[in-house]
Amino acid sequence: MIGDDCFIGAGTIILKGVTIGCRTIVGTDSVITKSLPADCIAGGNPCKVIKIRRPLNGC
Q1: Where do the domains of the chain lie?
Q2: Distances (CA, A) of 19 to 34, 39, 58
Q3: If DSSP states are collapsed to H, E and C, what string results for 36-54?
Q4: What is the pLDDT along the chain (59 residues), one digit of tens a residue?
Q5: How many CB atoms lie within 10 A of CB 33?
Q6: Cα(58)–Cα(44) distance, integer angstroms
Q7: Rounded to an integer, what distance in angstroms lies between the CA atom of residue 37 and that of residue 41?
Q8: Global pTM?
Q9: How far apart are CA 45 and CA 31, in angstroms?
């Protein structure tokens, strides 16, 4: 399942059963093996959270 307003870079592999939270950014050529929270920046092989983002509208 992929949340709203996500950006997933080219060549990214998403494994079965993974959930990507809303407004998450995933770097190019990442391999997503575990679910990612909302509002984060992630990348790598295996994909790891690099930074948690704070929404601009305070939600």
Answers
A1: 1-28
A2: 8, 13, 23
A3: ECCCEEEECCCCEEEEECC
A4: 999 999 999 999 999 999 999 999 999 999 999 999 999 999 999 999 999 987 666 55
A5: 14
A6: 28
A7: 9
A8: 0.86
A9: 5
Tell me how far apart the terminal alpha carbons of the chain are, to the nearest angstrom.
Answer: 21
Reading the block at residue 48, the tokens are 């790891």
With beta carbons less than 8 A apart as the criterion, state whether 45 and 25 touch. Answer: no
Structure letter (DSSP) for residue 55:
P
Instruction: Please report where in the chains the tokens 């990612």 appear, as a residue.
Output: 36
Handedness of CA 29, 35, 36, 38 (dihedral sign): positive
pLDDT of residue 29: 96
